[in-house]
Every structure is written in structure tokens, then in C-alpha cells.
UniProtKB/TrEMBL annotation:
Its main location: other. It is found in: Cell envelope. Pfam families: CCP_MauG. GO terms for cellular component: cell envelope. Residues 296-430, 449-589 form the Cytochrome c domain. It comes from Flavobacterium johnsoniae. This is Cytochrome-c peroxidase. One of its GO terms (molecular function) is heme binding. PANTHER family: BLL6722 PROTEIN, CYTOCHROME C PEROXIDASE-RELATED. PROSITE patterns: CYTC, PROKAR_LIPOPROTEIN. InterPro entries: Cyt_c-like_dom (IPR009056), Cyt_c-like_dom_sf (IPR036909), Cytochrome_c_Peroxidase/MauG (IPR051395), Di-haem_cyt_c_peroxidsae (IPR004852), Imelysin_sf (IPR038352). Keywords: Heme, Iron, Metal-binding, Oxidoreductase, Peroxidase, Signal.
Amino acid sequence: MKLKHFIFLLSTLCFFFSCQKNEVSKTTIKQNLLVDLTKLSNEIIQFQKLVSNNSSQKDILEQFKKSRLVYKKVEWAIEYFIPETARFMNGPALDEMELEENRSFEPHGFQVMEEMIYPEYEAENKENLIRELNIFQSNVKQLKSTFEVITISDDYVLDAIQQNVFRVIALGITGFDSPILQSSIPEAGQSLIVIPESLEKINAHNKSLAELKKLTSKAQNYCQKNNNFNAFNRAVFISEYLNPISKKIKAFQKEENIKNVKKSSPLKPTIETLFDKDAFDVNAFVLSDEYNFTKEKAVLGEKLFYDKSLSKNNDRSCASCHHPEKAFTDGLKTNISLTGSNLARNTPTLTYASLQNAQFWDMRQLDLEKQSVDVIQNKDEMHGSMENIHAKILVDNDYIKLFKKAYPKTSKPEAWQIQNAIASYIRSLNSFDSRFDEYMRGSKKSLNNQEIEGMNLFMGKAKCATCHFTPLFNGTVPPSYSKTEHEVIGTPNEASGKTLSPDKGRYLYNKMPQLAGAFKTPTVRNATITAPYMHNGVFRTLEEVVSFYNKGGGQGLGYEVENQTLPFDKLNLTVKEEQVLVAFMKTLTDKRYQ
């Protein structure tokens, strides 16, 4: 009996300490995070001292770099759990706008400070720099207070870490958050440190963890040995380091039986890498579940898309301006209105349009359903009537059969279903099967050396990927991909002219000075099929587009564009670099157009 009691006691103690160990492991991630935030606070204090003591630019710059490296270790958690604060710690040095309320907020954080101290630090910036550091320090204190009280469960840790890998791919190595100093490569390596450190707190004996440690260590070494921003090989780094790390994180999650986080996001929670063929969910921006995509809806939508009876005079369909063979554009500078005059804007591609939460160049509609109605009822485009179209469908037996298949829960076609069906067809137009996609999924022969060089320029020196985000290559911002951006680039009225396009873009709907000439950032996917380019079709070739950006956009050409969001300094691309950049963009063409 004594032996049995001893064994029972021993088992109980083992179970107790095992539970305690697991509980400590779960809280250690938070504890480590709080320690790292204290380190960040200490670095900012040192930064403040150097500025207050009028230290040299070299010392101030080095402290800035040190502070950012410490921030990169906690960025995964800040961006995931408290994104509202993150925006004012390391967001773009551009006004943050709330368009619904016509309000804007001045930017704060590292990127604002970077502009103050590099390439030259002027004494008159001292007061503003101290102000920025005080705001930053206040945000750090707020973060610590928040993290002390919130619960950080294993499923959220896995999701946050995976998102951080995607952040490094789409933002970190592109120079998005270090546009002037270009310290992105060593910072990318620093961002990966948290992966094994955090996961070993969940289970230090997991079989995938040892491989993750090796992979992250190799990735960090690669960044250290190849820290030149312009020369860094992003194709190699993503395909040989970041994608394998991403897969191992997912393997760790499965082995630990950790559930996926349920959230509304275009990125599916089941993906192994950012470049999985089915990585993005076209239902992410639908109005409600009843609007979700189905193949039956897409079949019905395709018939509606080509039906000229949707227009007032039965002579124009959606396909009249969106030709399938041209990636659903029309090849014209601007199309012709029903009255014979030129329309104001170029016809955009419908491919990948479903992975944006804003439609039209001026972003006036937030979803594809409203977009289709806008076009159908526009007196210059189709001049149709949704009421009349609905009436026609109610007496058309062929349509009634298709509607019944697409919407089996309703007894007869309803008006909203017409919009939803057309939108569903558009949602079916995302292939993700270009040569670039094949390369990212392991087919090394899909891209040649010239195209890989072009990819590295696109995501590096040429700064294309800081607005056309990987892998959608549009303005939908990673890693959550939940918001679509606009830019002011200073588009000319004529390719060889000296005047700025008079089109005010987004400003027509939100009278904010920052939005004058602002247009949605379109996708570069299928760009070789969708010429001419820009909102007014001003450029006929991709070479002309690259040349425009190389010169610094409108300001670089000498136009008065005070609110230009595109950097106006020259990119200094050589003729060869411009050529390989175009060569890379050609690899983004879907198979059906090759």
C-alpha cells in the first residue's frame, strides 16, 4: 500500500509540475515580449540622450539602426495584436486618412524620424525629432500596458508568427518601411529570431522545431552576408529560406494540433506559403455569406456578362469593354461612350479585381456588386435599368433555370442576385498560374536569370513592390491584405506633353487635399496584356511606364504635385535594368494569355 501511495504521489507531483511547466511556457512568450519592449524603451532613451546632447549624425544614425533592430524583434506581436498603434510606430511617412469621416492624422514613428536624420541631419530638426521620440516612447508604454493584460494563446502566436513571415516577404525586404536608409535586409534577419524562440515555449521538443531553428539561422546568416539592399537576391531568399520556414511553421502547428484562427481575411488560414495557388479567398470582401462565390453563380454571371440586353439599346454588354483575350480590358486609351465621345478613363482589367476592397480608378465603390450596377446604369456606358433587367429575367426560362441552380433557396430570381452573379463571374478570373507563381512553388526553370534579376529590381532598387505588393502585385496591403491603397504619382496628360492630368481621382468623392490626383494602385499581373496604362491610358508600353517611374513620376518630370506619394527622386535605373524589369513583369502573365 505504501508503495502504491508513493507511486500515486509521485504521479500527482509529476502531473502538477508538468501543468505548471506548460502554464509557464504559455506565459513566457508574453514575458519575453515585455522584456523586449523594455529593451526597446531603453534604446529610445539612449536615442533621446544623443539627440538632446547634440551628438554627431553618425552616432544618432547608429542608434536609430539599433532601435529599429530591437523593434523588429517585437514587430510581429505589435502589428498583429495592436495594429492601430503599430501604424504610428513604423508606418509610412504619409498622412493616415479616415475617408469615411474626411479626417487625416499626421504620421509618426521610425519612417518620419528616418527622413529627419538621413541623408543629412540638420540642427533645426532637433526639436521635432525629440517630439517624435517622446511620442514613440509613449506608444511603447501603452504597448506594455496592453500586453500585460491581454491573453496570448498558442493559436494566435502561430498566426502572428506566420503573418510576420509574410510581412518580411511583402514588406520587409522591399524597403517599404526603410525607404531612404534601406536597412531592410539585416532587419529582415532580425525579424525571424522570434520564430524558434516563441515556438519552443509551446513545445521545445517538437520535431519540426529543430529544423526551424536551422532554417531561421541560415536565413539570418544569409541576410548578414548579403546585406546590400540593391544586390540582395530576393528570389533565392524567398524560395530557399522564407517559403521553407513558412511550411515548417504550418507543420509545427499541425503536430501540436493547434487550431487555425477564425478571422475575416483574404488569406486562407490553411495555407503553407504566401504563394500557394489557393492562398487567397475571393469571399473576403463579399457583403455577407449569401453573396459567397459558387461555380453555379459564376456560370450564371458569365451569361449575364455577355448579354447585351443589359444595356438600354441592347447593343452593349460588359464584354464590350472587357475583352477576355485582353485580360478583360479593351486595348484602348479610353473607350467610347454611348453618345460617341471618349470616356474619361482607361478600362481596367477585371482579373484579380476581386482581391481589392475598392473598385474603379477612383475607388468609389467598395465591392464588385456595386461596381456592376454602377456600370450598367451609367448613361455613358450601358445606360441600363436594373429594374428592367430583372423584369426580363423573370420571364426568361433559360435564366430562371440558371438562377435556380445558383440560388436554390429562392423561388424566383431576385434583383440582388443579378449583381452577385456578375460579381461571382469576376471572382472566377484569378488564376495564379503565371511563370512567377510556378517559380515560387518550386519550379526553378520557370524563370531565367534575366527575369530573376528583374524580380530583384522590382522588389528592391526600383521600389515597385512598395506599392504593388507581392504576390497580388496590386495595392492591397500585406500581410492582412484587407485594405487597398491609392497613390498620387503625377500622371501626365500626354506622354510627351508638359501638363499634368486634370483628373482629380479620389478627390472627387473625398474633398481632402491629399487625395487630389489619387488613384487606386492596380495589379501588375497580366500587365503585358492590358496596355495602354494609367488611369488615362497615357502610356502605350511598359517601357514608357518604367521610364516615368525611373524619372521620379510627375514631380521628377517637373510638374507641380505637392501631394505626390510616389518618391520624386530618380531611381537611377540603367537601360539594362529597365529592360529586365519589364522582362520580370512579363512573367506575371496567366497561362491563358501566354
